[in-house]
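Hello K.,

You asked for the raw outputs rather than the summary table, so here they are, unedited. I folded two proteins back to back in the same session to keep the settings identical. This is the first:
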Amino acid sequence: MPGNIPLSGAVQAKLVWSTPAGPQSLNILHFQKVGVQVVNQAFADAVDAAIKGAYTSSALTQAIKSTVSLTRVEIRDLGSNSNPWFLGAGAAVAGVAVDDALPPQIALCVSLNTALRGRSYHGRTYLWGFTETSNDAAGAIAAPTASAATVFMETIRTTLSGGTTQLTLGVLSRFTTPAGQTETVERPLPILTPVVSCATRDSRWDTQRRRADPGI
């Protein structure tokens, strides 16, 4: 994360997942915009519609508990610390799975791959809200669920890169003080590296401990 350092041309998107009790989980994504784009309410609505469309078309809704909804997508321009959030106004999209929910801290990790090597150029998104039918007989992630999660992120990447949005999904990174450096140094600017593919690398469930308790 870039802290309070602005990053020209970058856009942050917040996917808000909710239950009847209120907001429960967030996914934060970053994008590079073209220079002429203005991040406003109309733009937020377009991004909101595209991501909710990807959620539906990927069939990920089939694996998500019916009480869990992708409520909205919020966006802001990271070019200035004073830029506001704009909240997508589209209707919430609920999952359709009706069997028992997995514990709230259980998550599926989708890797965001760039063309560069190293930890600073590798991103992850942890999806949430799954039910018992997303387990296979061995207790691992069922293949259809893993596929739907990958398609969801890939559809976000490819759909938002065109049309009226023209956003390039990226991995936002910053570098810490170099090894062996002990004196205070100016923190370098964050960088945003384009994502070239998304993948679910294995069938093991991950854990997001901060999601074990209700709320964000």
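The second followed immediately with the same parameters:
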Amino acid sequence: MYALFSGASPFDKYVAVSPTTGLSNGMLFQMAAAYLAAHDDLAARLFICAGSEEMKTEEAAMFGFTSGVTRLTELLAQRGYRSLVVESRIMDGESHHSIFPRAVMDGLLHAFGKSAHAAR
């Protein structure tokens, strides 16, 4: 997520699995707000996700995995970038430790314009 909002990223495809948004005094949201205010478009494909179980434990909730994914998705939707393709998911039944195989597979399929459902 840092690379996406840094303004100097060489990438146009991003997979963010359970990004930590609850630390550093909201630094990621500050970066996002600054980028959103300064740019008219964002040519990128973003897959962002967290697991539904990540909001059910005190330890995981402290990191803001699930709420951060929701908030970032909403911020990007409100901005309405023409060239940005976002797929956002809260993966049912997944914890911070179990989410990675499914998230990486689905994320890479999205990043390269494939349907996760067609691949199964």
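The CA atoms of residues 25 and 119 lie 39 Å apart.

Happy to rerun anything if the numbers look odd on your end.

Regards,
P.
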